[in-house]
Design brief:
- It comes from Mytilus edulis.
- This is Endonuclease/exonuclease/phosphatase domain-containing protein.
- InterPro entries: Endo/exonu/phosph_ase_sf (IPR036691).
- The structure is a single chain.
- The protein has 456 residues and is of the alpha+beta class.
- It contains eleven helices and 15 strands.
- The strands form six sheets. It has a five-stranded mixed β-sheet, covered by helices on one side.
- The longest helix has 34 residues.
- The N and C termini lie far apart (105 Å).
Length: 456
């Protein structure tokens, strides 16, 4: 949801120990997907706000919280009506005017205090009505039950704009002293869509369990004096929030939850594998997540299959995009290619050196990239260095001729060719070295035998 909000006590002179209560404010709320059709207006004051709505009938919606009826309150009441009148005069020729809010005065003739008379005179002057006949249904009920009245309205200049006007019954679930007033108007918004800025930032989770407490405390202590020296509570709160944010970024590690940009649309094949991963994980979670359980192994294999499928599809997307550039090059595709190259933070640079010139401005960098890719897209004569090509062929042939080929070693004894060669064969049975064995090995064996044979 988006909103346009002001509080009636924002500008009140409060002591430093009193925080703004936000009492009796005015607010207009709308779904985020309508934001491109709604413009907040600077007109008004702390009790009056307004927005312009682009629709089949353009609307200027004014929301007001008028001053409560007290002694000499008519001066502030008339001041707010003057502001509303200025807004109406400014936009009534181009927009349909809608005034809504707690007007703290009634259009019913059964009551006639100072506010009531001023309000009825004002609505008559600017031609504001409810658009339909409404009963004497009260919209305000005193908490102590002392009184009730009809002081909440939605008023229009064009009666044809009103499709339905309704005052809801007081509900026990509604803790406010006011009940709900609804109006359905005969206009529609066209081509509404969600804001494209919705996913333009990466989302991180702060890992508070891994906080560096010493660093966090030191970061706060550095700015704590600024908070103590400041007298204004609002500035104190602002400095405190900035200090806590800065300390958190410095000493608390983060975990990436979502990358910036639009979400990748999974193919039907990927969705099937993804669903399987979730089902396996749910079963594994239900049994306590044992690490060596067959479900854990199955989940790892399924995730591996999922990553493999995603990488394959991303590769196909890249090749398709590159092929589009080759088949039908245009400025839009080349700028997409430039943005892809600049989107990865690991490849960004503050400076580019082109033809000996250092370029720091991002706008100039984009222009140079565009010029490079535009030049790259222009067909040119194919010029080859034949000498270099021949030299490469010679090196390749030379490398091919001297490559090592894998081979297996013949286990047969190369001396006698009668048995496999091993240490036992060499020391005991090979006939070719029998003379050597008699000369050296027999003496060694006798020496060893004498050493290990116990004396009698």
């Amino acid at each position: 949801m988006e909103d346009h909000t002001r509080c009636s006590d924002t500008d009140d002179p409060l002591d430093s120990f009193k925080l703004p209560k936000g009492k009796g404010g005015v607010s207009i709320l709308w779904p985020s997907k309508w934001s491109s059709k709604i413009k907040k207006l600077k007109d008004g004051n702390e009790r009056v706000i307004a927005v312009n709505i682009t629709a089949t009938n353009d609307i200027c919606l004014i929301n007001a919280y008028m001053p409560t009826h007290t002694t000499n309150s008519q001066h502030e009441y008339m001041e707010c009506l003057d502001i509303i009148s200025d807004i109406i005069q400014k936009y009534e020729n181009t927009h349909k005017i809608v005034l809504a809010g707690d007007l703290n005065g009634t259009l019913q003739t059964s009551r006639a205090n100072k506010h009531d008379k001023i309000l009825r005179q004002f609505t008559g002057d600017v031609n504001l009505t409810t658009g339909v006949e409404i009963e004497n249904t009260h919209t305000f009920f005193h908490h102590a039950g002392n009184s009730s009245s009809q002081i909440d309205y939605i008023l229009v200049q064009d009666k044809n704009l009103v499709a339905e006007y309704k005052i809801e019954d007081k509900s026990s679930a509604n803790t406010s002293a006011h009940t709900i007033v609804k109006m359905e108007i005969t206009c529609q918004m066209t081509n509404t869509r969600y804001s494209s800025k919705k996913n333009n930032k990466a989302k991180f989770k702060m890992l508070w369990e891994q906080i560096d407490k010493e660093s966090y405390n030191n970061a706060i202590q550095q700015d704590i004096n600024l908070i103590e020296q400041e007298k204004d509570v609002n500035i104190q709160l602002k400095v405190l929030m900035e200090t806590l944010n800065k300390a958190g970024k410095r000493s608390v590690p983060t975990k990436l939850l979502q990358t910036k940009g639009p979400k990748w649309k999974a193919s039907p094949e990927v969705l099937i594998i993804l669903k399987s991963c979730r089902e396996i994980y749910k079963k594994w979670q239900d049994i306590g997540k044992p690490k060596e359980h067959h479900l854990a192994i199955e989940l790892r294999n399924e995730k591996k299959k999922l990553r493999s499928k995603q990488r394959a599809e991303h590769a196909i997307d890249r090749q398709t995009f590159y092929q589009q550039i080759m088949d039908n090059p245009n400025t839009q595709l080349f700028y997409r290619l430039i943005n892809r190259g600049r989107s990865n933070s690991r490849t960004t640079t503050n400076c580019l050196k082109i033809d000996g010139e250092y370029i720091f401005c991002h706008e100039d960098q984009r222009k140079r990239f565009a010029q490079y890719y535009e030049d790259l897209s222009v067909p040119k004569e194919e010029i080859y260095d034949n000498s270099y090509l021949n030299l490469c062929k010679i090196r390749q042939n030379y490398a091919d001729q001297h490559q090592f080929t894998p081979y297996t070693v013949d286990p047969t004894c190369q001396l006698c060719q009668t048995a496999n060669e091993d240490i036992t064969h060499f020391l005991t049975t090979c006939p070719i070295i029998s003379t050597l064995r008699e000369k050296y090995f027999l003496e060694i064996r006798k020496e060893i035998t004498d050493k290990i044979t116990p004396a009698k």
